[in-house]
Amino acid sequence: MITKRIIPCLDVKNGKVVKGIKFQEIREVGDPVTMAKEYDTQCADELVFLDITATNDKRSTVVNLVEKVAEQLSIPFTIGGGVRDTEDIRVLLQSGADKVAINTAAVMKPEFISEAAEAFGSQCVVVAIDAKRNNDRFEVVINAGKKLTGIDVIDWVKTVQKLGAGEILLTSMDRDGTKKGFDIELYQNVGEISNLPLIASGGGGSLDNFTEVLKETKVDAALGASIFHYSEFTVIDVKEYLQKRGVVVRL
Amino acid sequence: MIGVIDYNAGNQKNVCLAFNRLGEDVQLVSQVSDFDRIERLVFPGVGAFGSVLTYLNETGLYSAIKEWILEDKSFLGICLGLQVLFETSEEAPGVKGLGIIKGDVSRFSEGKIPQIGWNKVKSRSSYIDDEFYYFANSYYVRPKEEEIIAATTEYFREFCSAVSFENILALQFHPERSGKAGMELLKRWVS
Q1: Contact A45 B47 (CB under 8 A)
Q2: Is the link from the previous residue into B114 a cis peptide, with omega within 30 of 0?
Q3: 8 Å CB contact of B137 and A123
Q4: Rounded to whole angstroms, how far apart are CA atoms A33 and B87?
Q5: A11 labelled catalytic
Q6: What is the pLDDT of residue A104?
Q7: Do B48 and A3 lie within an 8 Å CB cutoff?
Q8: If exposure means fewest CB atoms within 10 Å of the residue's CB, which of A32, A129, B27, B187 is most exposed?
Q9: How close B115 gets to chain A, by Cα (Å)?
Q10: Are the C-beta atoms of residues A177 and A23 closer than 8 Å to each other?
Q11: What is the pLDDT of residue A24?
């Protein structure tokens, strides 16, 4: 059967890997290509690169990153961060990315999802959703976590599915960078109504955190950043722990 | 020289880069005359059955590819590159595949669709190890002849994940995205 995937996520700014806490503080961590190769040897199933550079020059920096990574990496990787239109997607795929993640641009113009899926195939289109708790609901946040939209995550997931997304990368804004565990309720709620491959993100700080989200919800993959970047655990550590607890992983 | 078919859809670059990492020279094949310069042909696979076959017909690549295969020349198909070898696909009713292999292409009916991720392959071929390889597919092939099946995989049902016979090796999974196991497979194919 298909295995659960463990996916290191690298936030990249101006060509360097950085890591923030709750989307705010930024610390530099390393060279993206070196880190990517390291994760490949650690048996990572895929990688996600999120570009958080905020300049006009952005596209050429990102293309450069994608080209360098694609030359060296033989596992799939997704690139996201400021992707605005199908031309952006085309350039990134042609530079060597396997999948492209879209977030704010999809919320602003939902048809962007179907345009992308039709042009490139839904398996290349990951819709990234940032979620923030609001009483007993989860609300969609855009603009790198800065703007509440009033849209319920459940409604947005249903829409995204209909429009042809291939996968959903769902991040808990409240948990991101805290290493306090994934937001189990969020993934249970979405798991009830969605049949798209679902990646959990935000809060993965311990071996038990990963076990919990992969066993108690219907997510297909879990993303980690701080836990891996600061070398507390390797991807293999996580996978061996999961395997001993009955989760099917690739080792 | 290895030729990789360029049908203008997404990502054939990773296939080229994978062969480069093995020290092989690769050329993109986008028109009929390109076939003269290559010894092996790779059909990489991202896109949709219908639109790819339309493109192949319009460019004359359809007959060039079919001829290449029928002339017993080395061919590697990946993902869609496996599916187009068949007669028809549920993904595009009415569209004719290359028809090299008897059988059709059907859509998964259980589980999350597309199947995305690493799955175990049970091999019947010396090219392929019993290993995890990377899949990203909503459709799977159903060959009529059992003997050409080179590997099977389970995704809520057992399905054919590779075929191999004579000059043809075709895989449902992506060897160029399957880490070390995938690179081993490609190495065997080129040697």
Answers
A1: no
A2: yes
A3: yes
A4: 42
A5: yes
A6: 95
A7: no
A8: B27
A9: 8
A10: yes
A11: 56
Determine, for residues B11 and A124 on separate chains, whether the beta-carbon distance falls below 8 Å.
yes
CA dist., res. A49 & res. A62, Å (int): 10
Give this prediction's pTM. Answer: 0.94
Reply yes or no on whether the pLDDT at A21 is more than 60. no
Nearest CA in chain B to A94: B11
Structure tokens at A231: 């070398």
- Chain centre to alpha carbon of residue B21: 20
DSSP alpha helix (H) spans, B60-103? 61-70, 80-83
Cα(A166)–Cα(A192) distance, integer angstroms: 18
pLDDT tens, position by position, B108-161: 999 999 999 999 999 999 999 999 999 999 999 999 999 999 999 999 999 999
Instruction: For helices B49-59 and B61-70, give the axis angle rounded to 10 degrees.
Output: 90
The chain-wide mean pLDDT, for chain A, equals: 91
Which residue does chain B place closest to A194, by CA atoms? B112
In terms of phi and psi (left: phi > 0; alpha: psi -120 to 50; beta: otherwise), the region of A216 is: alpha
Confirm if B46 and B8 have CB atoms less than 8 A apart: no
Residue A58 confidence class, pLDDT cut points 50, 70, 90: low
Residue A156's pLDDT band, with cuts at 50, 70 and 90, is very high
| Chain B closest-CA separation from residue A3 CA (Å) | 6
Contact B10 A1 (CB under 8 A): no
Helix (H, G, I), strand (E, B) or coil at A15: coil
Q: Is the pLDDT of residue B10 over 60?
A: no
State the average pLDDT over residues A48-60: 78
ipTM for this model: 0.91
Q: What share of chain B is helix, strand, coil (3-state, %, to 5)?
A: 30, 35, 35
What residues of A are in contact with residue B47 (Cβ under 8 Å)?
Answer: 120-121
Phi/psi zone of residue A83: left (φ > 0), alpha (ψ -120 to 50 degrees), beta?
beta
DSSP 8-state assignment for residue B174:
B
Q: Contact at 8 Å (CB) between B77 and B45?
A: yes
